[in-house]
Specification:
The chain has 130 residues and is mainly α. Helices cover 62% and strands 0% of the residues.
Amino acid sequence: MDVGRFDDIWSGVVLKRACDLLGKQIYNGAPLCEHNKAPRSTFGDLTNEVAGLELNEHVWEVVDTVETADSFRAAAEGVAEALRDGEFEEYENGPFLNYCGDYLADWLACLDALDADEHEHSRPAPATTD
């Protein structure tokens, strides 16, 4: 199954939960660009999204099981764990939520690697005795 259009919806659900846990807010301004999609069949889009529609009705329930976090990263880690370890067999395509949890955890690991690399390159050069 492909996440399709649910990637932006689900990432917004995760971000909203993190904001709620941290007492933060996000403000949206005017769009930076205009997105004009090529003409296509609405029914074709719907056909491509059917596999995720049921899951979309339950993702927020999983995300809401994360009850505490002291950072946006901690909130995302909690969601990744809840998705990865959850039992979703009762849903059509339920194991896809476990897959999403695995890949959210991978994404967080990539951010850790980038953060480590940034810190390594931002160190000042040692002073010389010249």
